[in-house]
Amino acid sequence: MLTLEPLRPDHAEALLAFERANRAYFARSIPDRGDAYFAEFADRHAALLAEQAEGTCRFHVIRDAAGDLVGRVNLVDLVDGTAELGYRIAESATGRGLATAAVAEVCRLAATAYGLTTVTAATTFDNPASQAVLAHNGFRFSHEFLLDDRPALAYRRNLATLD
């Protein structure tokens, strides 16, 4: 079981701890955020909250059944009924279906609460777990591209066909 919570100011400390604890794990399959991200985290968190308040993005933290922050799932660049999906799960929480469930829930929210019709996503070529999460949630392969000089795959999901 999991819970998605819209990003709030009081998530900052736990979210920073989550990002620090999983930095090396994430960097193995997605581009690293860089040292500045951590040094300027408070400002970045405030900026995300401002974007969310404007309605241009929807950020969520993922809590497991014990209430621990184990991930995040975000919809960014909400424009004309579309958004880009991003998500990450703590290394200690992988393999339990949390990413699949969180993506399913955020797609449901995107269609029902946020008024979106299409969600796109990308993953590096060497991240088969993320590719499986997207495929399981009805995303279809769109094209290949380079993401920070790494081969990547783009996906698209029509939310009118929510499963």
Question: Please, could you describe this protein's structure?
Answer:
The chain has helices at about 10-25, 35-40, 40-55, 100-110, 130-135, and strands at about 1-5, 60-65, 70-80, 80-90, 120-125, 140-145, 150-160. The two termini are about 20 Å apart. It has a 7-stranded mixed sheet with strand order 1-2-3-4-5-7-6, sandwiched between helices. The model has no long low-confidence stretch (mean pLDDT about 95). With about 160 residues, it is of the alpha+beta class. It has 5 helices and 7 strands; from the N terminus they run E-H-H-H-E-E-E-H-E-H-E-E. The longest helix has 16 residues, at about 10-25.
Q: What portion of the residues fall into strands of 2 or more residues?
A: 25-35%
Instruction: Characterize the largest beta sheet: strand count, sense, and whether it forms a barrel.
Output: 7 strands, mixed
- The sequence of SSEs as H and E is EHHHEEEHEHEE
Number of helices: 5
Q: What's the helical proportion of residues?
A: 25-40%
**Backbone shape:** globular
Oligomer designation: single chain
Number of strands: 7
Q: Report the uncertain regions.
A: none
Structural class: alpha+beta
Q: What is the topology, as strand order, of the major beta sheet? A: 1-2-3-4-5-7-6
- Quote the average pLDDT: 93
Tell me the span between the first and last alpha carbons. Answer: 19 Å
**What radius of gyration results from the CA coordinates?**
15 Å
